[in-house]
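Students often ask what a holo structure prediction actually looks like on paper. The answer is less mysterious than it sounds. You provide the chain, you provide the ligand, and the output is a string of discrete structure tokens encoding the 3D arrangement of the protein together with pyridoxal-5'-phosphate.
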Amino acid sequence: MNSKQFACRWVLKHQHKLKQAVRSCHLQVKHALGLEDYKTYEDDSQVTFKYSEMTTTFAEPHQLRSKPDVSELKFGQVFTDHMLKVFYHQALGGWQKPAIIPFENISLHPAAKVLHYAIELFEGLKAYRGIDGKVRVFRPDLNMRRMNLSAKGSGLPTFDGIELIKCMNRLVQVDQEWVPHTEGSSLYIRPTLIGIDGTLGVARSESALLYTILCPVGSYFDKTSNNSLSLLADPTYTRAWPGGCGDRKMGSNYGPTIRVQNKAAKKGCQQVLWLYGDDHQLTEVGTMNIFAFYVNERGDKILATPPLNGLILPGVTRQSIIELILEWGEIEIQQRTITMHEIITLQRENRLLELFGSGTACIVSPISSIEYMDTAIQIPTKEHANPLYQRVLDRLAAIQYGHIEHPWAMPIE
Ligand SMILES: *Cc1c(COP(=O)(O)O)cnc(C)c1O
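The corresponding structure tokens follow.
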């Protein structure tokens, strides 16, 4: 090989490092010249971490934890042996190399933005062990799209979702023994992105940490209940509002809901039905989307869910249910505003068939009652033969557990 060929090969091999060095140099020169930096995250949409650069450090035998009995498991209490970490430092050219490491605590500067201004977002998706033993992840591309939208809304860096899917798949593979073997249980995947700059200014993050942790889960809701929900609908509380960020999975949306959840619990209800506006529109149930199945005045069966108007988290399960119903073609699906007045009228006229919540954690959760303005409204969700919520749940489970091959379930090789 002559020296020119050698040089060219060297450049090809090291081009990513050169690019990082040039970018970092460019920033420093601009800074030295006092030029304003107009660089935004949109500009670095091609800038991402790469699965191909990921390193893996396996836990030592003494670090491995014993695996719990999943039937005993409460949601999110036990974590697996490894985690994924990727740092972002603007001063170092952006995203650093991803690393799978033994599960560990993270160390943060006490001024880290996440700790003061909740500059953080998260995602939730699941890996399922199929009847053929293969592990499949459900529609991770949709979670990646939503995660990048949340990042843009929080002044956090964006990345190529495909690269994170590949890194997370590898993490699940490393901890694959943790994917439960019983149908109904799964491995919950929690990607999280936090702003870690040690500066107190309320500003976009120049340093961030993206990490992913995994936990085996049984069922999300308390097994002692008969698995149908009682809700408190109190119009004095609001989860999201127009122009806000209720349609993003940002941590700041969840902390303020705890006091309302406590109030629901005091009244003997399991979850909060979030209302909005003077007409008491139904928006979400706890951290789930909501669906109402009813018969209209002409006798047609309709499945309705609130529209993605900014108040609603665009759930992957919600979208999947809408797509299934469209595919089945038997029931009309409507994305529109539903009010408490309408629910009461439908219920009174015996035209309300079912009310259910949808989300990755429980997939579909039937609702049996709503406590609203001091009256208890009974919902006959579980009083029908072959209810729609069960058909939807069965179909999604068949896809997730590999009973049917379907493009929504992505096998991990
Ligand atoms: C996560 C979440 C959902 C459900 O979204 P999925 O993608 O189906 O899990 C619904 N509402 C809220 C408020 C959520 O945080």
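Residues 34-43, 220-225 have pLDDT under 50 and may be disordered.
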